[in-house]
Amino acid sequence: MELKANIPSGPIAQKWSKHRFDMKLVNPANKRKYSVIVVGSGLAGGAGAASMAELGYNVKCFCYQDSARRAHSIAAQGGINASKNYQNDGDSVWRLFYDTVKGGDFRAREANVYRLAELSVNIIDQCVAQGVPFAREYGGTLANRSFGGALVSRTFYARGQTGQQLLLGAYSALMRQVGAGQVKMFPRHEMLELVVIDGRARGIVARDMITGKLETHLADAVVLATGGYGNVFYLATYAKGCNGTAIWRSYKKGAAFANPCYTQIHPTCIPVHGDYQSKLTLMSESLRNDGRIWVPKKAGENRPAHQIPEEERDYYLERKYPTYGNLAPRDISSRAAKQVCDEGRGVGPTGLGVYLDFADSIQRLGAEKIGEKYGNLFEMYERITDEDPYKVPMRIFPASHYTMGGLWVDYNLMSTIPGLLVGGEANFSDHGANRLGASALMQGLADGYFVLPYTVGHYLASTRLDKVDETHPEARAAVAAVDERMKTLLSMKGKRTVTSFHRELGKIMWEHCGMGRNKAGLEQALQKIPALREEFWKNLNVPGSADDLNQSLEMAGRVADFLDLGELMCQDALEREESCGGHFREEYQTAEGEALRDDERFCHVAAWEYAGEGKKPIRNVEPLVFEDVPLQTRSYK
Ligand SMILES: Cc1cc2nc3c(=O)[nH]c(=O)nc-3n(C[C@H](O)[C@H](O)[C@H](O)COP(=O)(O)OP(=O)(O)OC[C@H]3O[C@@H](n4cnc5c(N)ncnc54)[C@H](O)[C@@H]3O)c2cc1C
């Protein structure tokens, strides 16, 4: 497989402008002759579908929720980065670029990251024009707060509901186009197969989740914006429905899967409280602006927080990383929390928790001011834990939150299947081995509003596409494959529920491919997962039929894909014999317990190619070159 990144030539700051000029344009009068399928209506898909329809393309947009407005992006709390430098504190496009490359531990493609930083400023203008109610200062200017991995304040926010407000903006733009007849929405439709004809992506097979009908939809290009696959861990901060099916099925049709082992474990989630829990809740990173993280100095401490005097507390992030303190990046903060818990200094009933304490800020600023900034997050915390964070410190612990891996794309966001473009969390492109907080919303909207509308047009203008219809053998074969698979899932009538398989897979993944990974553990996982998969395909019980709403059937299909994807994650983690960002191989660490990269052997993207059922996938490599931010050891001290 050839991985051509198609990075434009010239100085980094001019690449995107030059490329926009070099790309081919579709004559405005011809745009209505083209059709584009967008799978996903979150920030990346919603923004992309609306923008392409605005240009005149005929767009079909799919989501599995009952409304485009319920995509998982709506859950995003803390904010969105942009290098506007409104604070006059030293920010610039270059600094955001630098912070992101360094934050990703030098495992992202420089040119993509620079473009992201460059487009960040346009995003804010676009959203403000749509009426997104960003927080403002008294004088009316937009407010900012700080997020991890940066020494400047560049995060724009709408209280703790930034994703919701941004999504409402994108949704309004989308609905305008639905009203204009340019976008046809397909809610409650799940893409279950990609249709590839003559080597190009030409459509999808989707299941109407209400009637069970399988439908073939064909188009001139297909865009996937289907979000991340972090629910492979079962317990995660993602919405329960998030899954990897669309990208996994595309992988099996020839799209390379890049860096599957790069997953983000977020440090500030409400700790797990029992075996039968099905979901974890994030406490936004923005809380680390005013909350201080600590544990008792003594192991086995059992006094309540307020009885532990100041001198017996360890503010371990402030101690270890004096420059960034509580705003150290996520991978580093998560590992530090694990380390203190491993030492027996964790808090709460399970010992798997650390304090996030607002007492100092409340004393300094007053409870009202803190409530203005984080009121809804405090309320959510209290509703879940029955503890009032205005009075006692929150308890937090790391949990699966984001996937930096995803389908491999070139500079144009084109996968290795021509005509299949991938945006938002579903692709691998911009965050390397660790994503900085508030950068996912930025990437989703950059891809949707400002990259895909150009690069899809360029593809259409440069490609001759024959007319195809549903009777094409490839389209028929795709429908038959989905049908067959569902019949198999329904026919086993075994003894175990799909949730029990998912929970078991999650435990394997968390234990062996979570915050810390090592060779022996990964090898064990690579034994356990195939055994679990074998049992799944013999002993699964899916009640009901395929001709109706059947949530067990939906989940079964997704968990089947997670079983395969989890295995690929472990293979990738095993072969990457270095530590970088969220991928922490315990064998490769400095004397101080920090990640130890091996740039000689691993300064590259690993892009996995499907080799056929039962065959070991092929590991292809895209070398990474750092010309503008020279390779260096990442330090936040
Ligand atoms: C709790 C939480 C808080 C977060 N807070 C922040 C934050 O403050 N700042 C930040 O930058 N990032 C944050 N993130 C990360 C960020 O929210 C996500 O990375 C981002 O919203 C993903 O957007 P997306 O458009 O790529 O995908 P999503 O919003 O996940 O949308 C995926 C879409 O694809 C559709 N879809 C998926 N599969 C299929 C299929 N097979 N068939 C049909 N449709 C399908 C879904 O229906 C949905 O419409 C947070 C994440 C979590 C979990």
How would you describe this protein?
The protein is an alpha+beta fold and 637 residues long. Among the domains are: 266-400, Succinate dehydrogenase/fumarate reductase flavoprotein, catalytic domain (Flavocytochrome C3, Chain A, domain 1, Alpha-Beta Complex); 473-602, Methane Monooxygenase Hydroxylase, Chain G, domain 1, CATH 1.20.58. 36% of the residues lie in helices and 14% in strands. It contains 16 helices and 19 strands. The strands form five sheets. A five-stranded parallel β-sheet has the order 5-2-1-9-17. A five-stranded antiparallel β-sheet has the order 11-15-14-12-13. The chain has a four-stranded antiparallel β-sheet with strand order 16-10-18-19. Helix 2 links the parallel strand 1 and strand 2. The chain is globular, with a radius of gyration of 24 Å. The two termini are 41 Å apart. The model has no long low-confidence stretch (mean pLDDT 96). The chain binds flavin-adenine dinucleotide. Flavin-adenine dinucleotide is lined by residues 39-45, 62-65, 71-73, 75-80, 162-163, 189-191, 225-228, 237-238, 242, 245-246, 282, 284, 401-402, 424-426, 438-441, 444.
